[in-house]
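Quick one: structure tokens for this chain, please?
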Amino acid sequence: MTPLSPDTIRRPFARYSHGIEVPAGARLVVTSGQLGVRPDDSVAQDARGQTDQCFANIAAILAEAGMGPADVIRINAFVTDRAHMAGYMAARDAWLAGVPVPPASTLVIVSGFTRPEFKVEVEVTAAKV
């Protein structure tokens, strides 16, 4: 994967790439949005805990395809309040620790999810040659 961050535009606000070029012939995996809900249907009360679970769910999906965090080319994340951004970003950065090319990333503030306790939802696209 090749990061695309032209010098003619502002540097990214955090650890992400403005764009990622995927080589021809790469396999793609696209996840559904993952909520911070555990297999037993329990949910952490804070955004960081929910985001950690989102990424744990995503890791399991990617592993089933023989992929991991280093194969992620795009993250789309949604939080229900600006106050949840710090918890989300800390969890994202921890999950991507050691990944040499940070993926493209978007974070959007939304009015809510299917259950009121959900604060964060994350979906990713991954590619592997």
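The longest strand covers residues 120-128.
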